[in-house]
Amino acid sequence: xxxxxxxxxxxxxxxxxxxxxxxxxxxxxxxxxxxxxxxxxxxxxxxxxxxxxxxxxxxxxxxxxxxxxxxxxxxxxxxxxxxxxxxxxxxxxxxxxxxxxxxxxxxxxxxxxxxxxxxxxxxxxxxxxxxxxxxxxxxxxxxxxxxxxxxxxxxxxxxxxxxxxxxxxxxxxxxxxxxxxxxxxxxxxxxxxxxxxxxxxxxxxxxxxxxxxxxxxxxxxxxxxxxxxxxxxxxxxxxxxxxxxxxxxxxxxxxxxxxxxxxxxxxxxxxxxxxxxxxxxxxxxxxxxxxxxxxxxxxxxxxxxxxxxxxxxxxxxxxxxxxxxxxxxxxxxxxxxxxxxxxxxxxxxxxxxxxxxxxxxxxxxxxxxxxxxxxxxxxxxxxxxxxxxxxxxxxxxxxxxxxxxxxxxxxxxxxxxxxxxxxxxxxxxxxxxxxxxxxxxxxxxxxxxxxxxxxxxxxxxxxxxxxxx
Length: 469
Description:
This is Alkaline phosphatase. The protein is of the alpha/beta class. The protein contains 18 helices and 18 strands. Helix 4 runs parallel beside helix 6 (146-152), helix 11 (244-256) runs parallel beside helix 13 (280-303) and helix 15 crosses helix 16.
């Protein structure tokens, strides 16, 4: 019996390390990986391992002895490295990471669907479209932001937002638009004085909606362009729908389902934005928005077992620490009653006649004398930027949260998977391995270059504009 236990433990350890394929371990004979009909790729932008730990603690019931598991814990299968091409060192930006996740090719920071030589590379979404599958994206950023762009387009700079938006209409796969469904923000890029891309998509037969409620009125199977904000969606704490990612995901699937299958990219874009802003309240709210979407997708797979759902991050943002200042505590209870994001609260605080009452109501807990005095001083200063910073610091102090940077870090990120073919993503991977294994599941060959070098201006100032990150 001891020998059996030891062998079992060794096989399990080997599987976790990716040294033995799950098929060989279970049957003794290699098998073809189970090929999914539908693939749903979820990217939680900026979600390093500290975010998933923090979210578990944030959701914990303090009345029980153990910290309860969350949906992510039930899907964890491995880890992935995130470094970009050598020219950009060890710490990636979202564009290079998304290009790696989408195409299996390392590139420089800022690259959208191109390699180091600025030659376009095929994405898994584009391959799915070429194979006759329906395709879509559902994100909380603008739909032409770095991550969705790397799956849909090719450009030498992520900052060329108008060019990327143009390519969504201009580029074709087998004579068809690359995406059948596009949901997120970005009207300012698609309705411009020089070009009205929304009108062009409408004329091409797409349904266009600009509110969440209108999205629910469309007949299933429609081709849809849904733009719900000028740029990115509001922070989820300030949005009218607190489950907006699950909602967008559900409706994207409703329009993509068909006999030949579909590929859907989902992005929890604003985990990253909260990390750049060092805003722990918004970070946990965006994580909850993601978790609700993953709960929906987990249920979807149980009803549609021919579907693969993958979740990973492109990198970690902010250097979040669960505990800080040499104190062995983290107090998430101060985040659970927030009624708005730090920036939204700050914007209104400077106009309040009773700032202490307002701030306590918005934060969801009673203020100390020092915090009440601070609120009065901030309201008198009429400086939204200073108030925003002070509220974030207050929440960091209350929760004992730490941050090491306003940018990215180079740590590995977790990989989560469930459904058909999910065993192919177990163990320690590189981010490019994720795309390569999806290509295999799509019955295609390995990725490669598509065209001549892509022209454009690399005008993104990564030091001054964190939206470039």
